[in-house]
Amino acid sequence: MERKTQGFTVKATMKNSVVVGPPAAGAFRERPPNSRTFRTFYERGDFPMALHRNAKGSQWKVDIEKLDYHHYLPLFFNGLCETVHPYEFFARQGVHDMLEHGGTKILPVIPQLIIPIKNALNTRNRQVICNTLKALQQLVMSGGMVGEALVPYFRQILPIFNIFKNMKINSGDGIVYGQQKRQNIGELIQETLEMFERYGGKDALINIKYMVPTYQSCMI
Predict the structure, then answer these.
(1) Per-residue DSSP letters for 90-109?
(2) What is the pLDDT, as a whole number, of residue 167?
(3) Taking the model in full, what pTM does it have?
(4) How far apart are CA 75 and CA 78, in angstroms?
């Protein structure tokens, strides 16, 4: 016989009762990526970019400024959900280079980047989240009005921020390594939220607070 009391299930037998706690919510459990589009394009050789022989660098086959940003930038952001070499490295390098050289081409592409960003964050993979946060920081700084253009999409981007905001690395050498590689999720989230507030215009803070209530303004 079972009965529920205050969210717990009590399984009763003739001799004793066993209290079973509520099921785990699984908020931190990793999820598989929703898309493998980037991997498909890479394996077909569709990117105008190649790895050096030592696999530690990359080389573009065309001038980055001449690329179709509406086509390639969302594809590279889609690759941020990858964790395996060379896909992971290739995607990060592509995002970095295109944001560095994009200038005014970046702002019109913002709406196309939201789903890839959301999908990467929703994997809940620590490595993927850190890479995506760094990409978001560079995105905010990549051109005028980009920070403000992201504000309407905070409801899609920030839920994962709220889940992982207080996650810190706190074990021995791990924290040192994490800080050197900038892999401390909690600190990266705080940095990113502050950049969203600084460059997001007058409506940024209220929209951040709506999704991440514990966030404290860095501007006051």
Answers:
(1) HHHHHHHHHHHHHGGGSGGG
(2) 82
(3) 0.81
(4) 5
Report the C-alpha gap between 112 and 58 in whole angstroms: 25
- How many helices (H) and strands (E) would you count in the chain? 11, 5
The residues that bridge with 19 in the sheet, in sequence order, are 10
Q: Using the predicted structure, report yes or no on whether residue 94 has a pLDDT greater than 80.
A: yes
**50-78: average pLDDT:** 82
Question: Residue 23 has which token pair?
Answer: 């099921």
d(CA 187, CA 179): 9
Q: Evaluate if residue 177 carries a pLDDT over 80.
A: no
- Residues forming beta bridges with residue 49, ordered by sequence position: 60
Nearest to 130 by CA among 57, 187, 73, 200: 187
Q: Copy the structure tokens of residue 61.
A: 């086959």
Q: Tell me, rounded to whole angstroms, the distance of Cα 194 from its chain centroid.
A: 16
